[in-house]
Amino acid sequence: MRIGELSARSGASPRSLRYYEERGLLTSERTAGGHREYGEDAVERVDRVQCLLGAGLNTETIRELLPCVYAQERGDPAPDLIDWLCAERVRVSEAIRGLERTRQALDQVIANAR
User: Fold this and answer.
1) What are the C-alpha distances in Å from 4 to residues 12, 13, 32, 40, 61?
2) Cβ distance 2 to 9 under 8 Å?
3) Which residues contact 6 (CB under 8 A, 6 or more apart)?
4) 69 touches 78 (CB < 8 A)
5) pLDDT for residue 16
6) Residues lower than pLDDT 50 in the chain
7) How high does pLDDT run on average in the chain?
8) For residues 48 and 33, what is the distance between their CA atoms, to the nearest angstrom?
9) pLDDT attached to residue 66
């Protein structure tokens, strides 16, 4: 499928799809005319990338994590997957604690201003 169809089916903009490809998160073949052609699995892959981005992972981490995720789903050994996920969970938890401190500080400023 071409980039426009992938965009329509995945909900990701063509610009995002080109960015994912640039960052090594998505692959395409080129037609003789130079157009990108994506396989059927690209829709699911884009969905997975967007989910991981939404969870706060950066593109570099996602690029390194995706092979482990797919290996695990195929039933192949993926020992690094749990370590990756645990490390990301720690990072997200620390970010949440920081945001909670910021919210408390804002609450205090608001209370003092009233």
Assistant:
1) 10, 8, 18, 14, 27
2) no
3) 12, 17, 38, 42, 43, 46
4) yes
5) 96
6) none
7) 89
8) 29
9) 84
